[in-house]
Amino acid sequence: AFIAGYCVRLVKSDRDHPTEVGLGFAAPKRAASRVDIDGILWVDTASRRLQRLEFRYVGLDRRLDDARPGGLISFHEMPNGVVFIDRWSLRLPVVRNDSVYSSRRHEYTPQQWVDTQESGGEVAQAQWPASPAWHGSLGTLKLQAFNAAKRPAVGAHVRLDSTSYESRVDSSGQVTITRLLPGPYRLVVVDSALEPLAISLTTSIAFTAARDSVHRAQLVVQTANEYVMERCIHDAKWYRAMPRRDRGVVWMIGRIVGADNVPISGASVEAYRGDRLAIATAGLNPQGVSSTATGTDGIFQLCSGMFHVGDSALVRLQRRGLPPIEFTHRLTDTLFVLPLIRDPRRP
Question: From CA 301, how far away is CA 231, in angstroms rounded?
């Protein structure tokens, strides 16, 4: 049925396929409402093995041509004669709605932009009875991880950002992540205290994985306390030479997001000693002992040094045009991570 519906032709080798010959195919007729494929099936002329299928979609809206929609399927032949697909990818257009401002007409005009989205996968390992296992040509990351005291950061949770690649540091301070698809990666540390706030600790380790290669690096694992301290220093609310004489001093960190998890910036955050009932009973109008505002990431930190372990803290969130949100917490550790605050009244 395929041969009956497509025209087939021979394609000569080229710079990208020097030892291969191609079997090209295309639909002889194009229907207005039909999306077809044009492609080439490449065969190695020396080993006479099927190598790959490269194809493109035709018949789509011409506005999508810049995305070069199409795909690739790669084949591998085992010594036992089995041929299987070891790599595949699809490149598809994605239409994004936006607007353009006209300074002459002083208005926004709707406009659509075409982006490209690529997806696919690879076989990492395959095995058949009475045959040796086959392993894909993928990359590996090997880390030696320490804490600030230069001891192995045992149990630290590391992840390659925006991927499912992750592992934990072993008793010797080593961590290995295997089967890395080729491409760029950035390493982050996942701290259990900050994970509920969707905060990961960035590192200086960024690399590009290559096939059949090992990337080696050393990592100093930052703690949640050190992360908050760096933010306090960045905001000029603390500096490195300031000693924390009282080990019971508490820092606080939290995050405010809208109903769709979009960070809310510019919200005012104030903290008071004591709880609402105690303040009301005493008839006091307490002054805020610590205040800040959320950044563009919706994160705030309170690092005034005015709170201690064992204190009760009344935290008040205020946003323009909306009533404040208040809650009281008992401070039980030197770092207090407030639960993720979702405000359904703000997008």
Answer: 8
* Tens digits of residue pLDDT in 83-141: 999 999 999 999 888 888 777 877 888 888 888 999 999 999 998 888 788 999 999 99
Classify burial at 238, counting beta carbons within 10 Å of its beta carbon; exposed 0-12, middle 13-18, buried 19 or more.
buried
**Cα separation values, 61 from 32, 37, 57, 68, Å:** 10, 14, 11, 12
Report yes or no: 83 and 75 within 8 Å, Cβ to Cβ: yes
Of 307, 304, 314, nearest in space to 332 by CA: 307
According to DSSP, residue 207 is labeled E
191 Rama sector, left if φ>0, alpha if ψ -120 to 50, beta otherwise: beta
Q: What is the CB neighbour count within 10 angstroms for residue 57? A: 21
Residue type, 198: A
Radius of gyration, CA atoms only, the chain:
29
Q: Which two tokens stand for residue 255?
A: 């995050």
pLDDT digits (tens, 9 = 90+) for 252-275: 999 999 877 889 889 999 888 876
Residue keyed to tokens 């598809």: 92
